[in-house]
Design goal:
Radius of gyration: 35 Å
Number of strands: 33
Strand content: 35-45%
Shape: elongated
Number of helices: 6
Largest sheet: 8 strands, antiparallel, barrel
Distance between the termini: 102 Å
Structural class: mainly beta
Strand order of the largest sheet: 1-5-6-7-4-3-19-22
Helix content: under 10%
Length: 562
Amino acid sequence: MAFADRLDLGLTLTIGGTAHAIPSADVLAFELDLHGWGHEGRVEFRVLDETGHGGQKQDKLLADFLKPDLVEVALELKAVHSDTATKPTFTSLKLKGLVQDKSLTEEGVAQAKGAGITYRHYTVRFVDTARLLWKQHYPCVLYTQKTLQDVLDAHKGDKITLANDWDAQLAKTLPLIFLGLSPESGASFYDFVVWFVHTRNGVLAYDYTAQGYQLRAAKDASPTPLTLRAADVDRVSVVFPEVARHDVAILNAAAESPKNQAITNAQAVTGVRQDVLLRTDIADDVQARATLETARLKVRGLEVELTWNRFPAVAFAPGALVKLPDTAGWTAAGVPVTQDFRVRRMHLRADPLPVEEGEIPAGGEASGPGGEEPTRRPKPESRYLISFTTRLEKKAELHTDLPPFTAPVFPRFVEGLIVSEVGEKKDETWQAYTDEATSLDSYKVKLPLFANQIIQVPFNANLQPGHFYFPAYKGARVLVALDFLRAWLKRNLDWRAGARLPSDGQGVHLLVGKTTTSGTSMRHFYEDNKPLWRLQRTNESDTEKVELKEGNLLILVKEESA
């Protein structure tokens, strides 16, 4: 249902630090879609330029509007009611965002003296700050011994404010955090944040008072509920969202500790389930995932959709708590009026009212006698044809509303160098580092691309059969697979110094030990197109060698003189 109503508007566009205030009467139309996690909108307005026929009014917005500079939008809406029994304290709905795209159209109006005046019809589409900026942000960066709050702070810039309340996820120091985001994968930093909140069962909340964001463990239940006026609402609808009809199973594929843990849902249909596959030797990780998936398995409750017949005097935004009127007609719809509700979404659209003959449209001008300079009709607020709907959820609703997102793609691959603190610097030793909490062993790998930060990866057989025990040696160039919070060795990338043989001998070589002068070499190659096998132990000047070749067995023990 659309209704005619008056609104007091405040619209300001800030471009390159210059603020351009647009009078309420010049705002022609707007449309707003507000969610608990952010907003988007469109505003159309006109600006008069009389300089074409010698007038004084000039369009001071045009020059800045034509620039590619960032445009900040501030919009404020307030009801204008005069028919209430007691005059209420009017409050405003305020929005701030960044322009996503913009356009303008020039409209010429002929005057009696032949000269013309120009109206410029401007349109801007805007979204909340993070959705514009973070949607274009694709960092590929590694952090070690940092918290996720540190990561968010490093990427918020000077336009985005964060006031988080989720210490369990954001305040813990982690050994590795990797953001390997690329435009080709389609997952931006904004997608990453929403994905993180979704997979950790959190809440992304937009604070319409502070015009900033909150990452929270649960929805805010602290606001004082506002009682809605029954006279302001035209229709009440009760909506029942889709119910989860699946069970969940946690599967741990570790061979020594396999597990299949069922999580039941009272509303599930037999045989329908979602399996979560893990591979970990840490039992606590399995239990933590089971706890998380249990919390994510939510059966949604009913929602209430309100269709309004006027803009409320006491404005509110998504996230606000409200009480429904207890008058007749509300309880009849089965709405539990004793409960508090939370505003989940709002949609507001305002179009110009049809212009009657002799009436001056909103933002219009009336020419003076004889076609003289037009006189603006005083009008502190504007009348619109408005449609306004609001979706409410129960205060205790656990379902989290989030914007659509693209999940980031992992792993990404970078090169690293194996670290070992055993022996002298020149020694090509290996080292296993044991974690005190889990008793699991790991390598340390230095990543030159990321300022030589050192990460830990599993110490295991990798691509080798288990009966070969050849740990990666100090300084070995390796390919590392980086996931969001973990990493592993993908493969080796080079030959050890002294291991490679000339191609004309078609040889193979096993080289072990600390250095080429302190180790053992076993090689097989061809000499004069005849196979030759050689085993040689070397320790500085001391050499022992066994060699087999055509018609010859050589056993040699020698020590070179100093």
